[in-house]
Amino acid sequence: MKVNELLTQIKNNNINPIYLVLGKEDYLINEIKKHFVELIPEEERTMNFASYDMESQNIATAVGDAESLPFFGEKRLVVVNNPYFLTGERSKSTLDHDIDSFIEYVNHPVDSTVMVIMAPYGKLDSRKKVTKQLKNNAEVIDLTKLDDRAIQSYVANNIKSNGYTVEGDALQELLGRVSNDLSSAMNELPKLFLYCQKDKVITKNSIDSLVAKSLDQNVFDLIDYVMKKDSKNAIDLYRNLIVEDQEPLQINAVLLSQFRLLLQVNVLSRKGYSQGNIAEKLKVHPFRVKLAMQNVRKYQFSSLRDAYLGLVDVEEKLKSTPESPELLFQMFTLKFVDNQIG
């Protein structure tokens, strides 16, 4: 089930007994929680709404609450957070969860209770009996499958519902600056609404003024300058990142990661892999692969390799010498421009 379908279902009070919300999209998770809580009248929430964290509370406690009839109301809402026992992940928790009682409840839920399981994970362990039973009996909202189009549509609809329009490619600029992260984009909108409240039009200029580029986005620009052998702009941007309190080792780590991705995408795309296949094989966000595929055609494999090896050398020196990070990057850039790396 898609998020918009779920929100419509809640609005129409057409509710199922059990929901499983899978994924790490914080903004949508909070929106879903908010709409479920609004099912319970405010004056009834003390008695008919409870939230449990599986890292510190036993699932049996949540099940016991779910089995109780609502107190002077029509519905009881039970939210189960962080159900790590549905995954293959290890947890610091030493709780011995009563999984059998949970499976029994999942198979025979109470009609007057709405149980919402919030699973902030990339995937669940489908081999486990408890996971299989839950998926068979719950309405599943999978936030892990939000693609670029769905994120763009969600942000665009929110802008429209607030009475604003967005100019030309300004929406793409906004999403690019937040690395296509929905939660980050939605957090930027209130500032843009306030800034553009006179004309009700969000422009690229307003985004330039208000929305800072992420480190990843700055690194993409940095890579472009390096690969174009534009040493002046590369060094200036690196210097600005240092002034903005970005850690040199972190900058270099992101640079290495992006160059590694460009090399991998270069190889896999030449073998005929699609964007989705590459993202799945490399286990990286599809948006990063999309950007890499847009850029990799401009660069020669040998130049990407030489730059990557040069940055490996920079990392070693950052960790083992007292030399200035800015000087190390400057030396790397100038050597690369003069083809002395590799």
Structural account:
The protein has 342 residues and is of the alpha/beta class. The termini are far apart. The chain folds into three domains: 3-145, 3-Layer(aba) Sandwich (Rossmann fold), CATH 3.40.50.300; 148-210, Helicase, Ruva Protein, domain 3 (Orthogonal Bundle); 215-337, Zinc Finger, Delta Prime, domain 3. It is 57% helix and 9% strand. The model has no long low-confidence stretch (mean pLDDT 91). The chain has a five-stranded parallel β-sheet with strand order 2-3-4-1-5, sandwiched between helices. A two-stranded parallel sheet has the order 6-7. Helix 7 packs parallel to helix 9 and helix 16 runs antiparallel to helix 17. The chain has helices at residues 3-11, 26-37, 45-48, 59-66, 99-107, 129-137, 148-161, 170-177, 182-195, 204-210, 215-227, 231-243, 248-270, 275-282, 286-296, 301-320, 325-337, and strands at residues 18-22, 49-53, 76-81, 113-119, 139-142, 165-166, 201-202. Belongs to the DNA polymerase HolA subunit family. It catalyses: DNA(n) + a 2'-deoxyribonucleoside 5'-triphosphate = DNA(n+1) + diphosphate. Residues 216-336 form the DNA polymerase III delta subunit-like C-terminal domain. GO terms for molecular function: DNA-directed DNA polymerase activity. Residues 19-142 form the DNA polymerase III delta N-terminal domain.
Please provide a brief summary of the model.
By secondary structure, this protein is of the alpha/beta class. It has helices at residues 3-11, 26-37, 45-48, 59-66, 99-107, 129-137, 148-161, 170-177, 182-195, 204-210, 215-227, 231-243, 248-270, 275-282, 286-296, 301-320, 325-337; strands spanning 18-22, 49-53, 76-81, 113-119, 139-142, 165-166, 201-202. The chain has a 5-stranded parallel β-sheet, sandwiched between helices. Strands 6-7 form a two-stranded parallel ribbon.
